[in-house]
Specification:
Radius of gyration: 15 Å
Number of strands: 8
Helix content: 10-25%
Distance between the termini: 26 Å
Number of helices: 3
């Protein structure tokens, strides 16, 4: 885990696999702390303040600027998994080839695209 990946407000597991929210003290203590990334699953995404689109495997931000979708080989993706989905200024939705593996990555993309911290429901 690199310090550049961690932002205040991110969710991680500690050394005992207990979830915690990163604050500025954690950042300052980075070298002496354990940050275990939380793997992305549909269940974990449902806990975040994202809107699930019906029964589809797609979660989007409130302003619809970004989302996360689950794609399979049937969807013409070589590697099954969760991928970043973005909407351009004209409203067109693009499936990217950016595979997302951890919750903090979703949080970081959300902040980058919306300017808002992604929190738990």
């Amino acid at each position: 885990m690199k310090l550049e990946e961690i932002r205040v407000g991110n969710y991680f597991y500690d050394g005992q696999h207990k979830p915690f929210t990163v604050d500025s003290d954690h950042i300052r203590s980075f070298a002496s702390m354990t940050f275990i990334p939380i793997p992305i699953t549909a269940r974990q995404l449902d806990k975040l303040n994202l809107d699930r689109q019906g029964d589809r495997d797609m979660w989007v931000s409130e302003d619809l600027k970004m989302g996360v979708s689950y794609w399979t080989k049937l969807d013409r993706f070589e590697v099954e998994g969760f991928y970043l989905t973005v909407r351009d200024k004209s409203g067109v939705i693009f499936r990217t080839t950016i595979k997302i593996e951890y919750i903090h990555q979703v949080q970081n993309f959300h902040l980058d695209f919306t300017g808002k911290q992604l929190t738990l429901k």
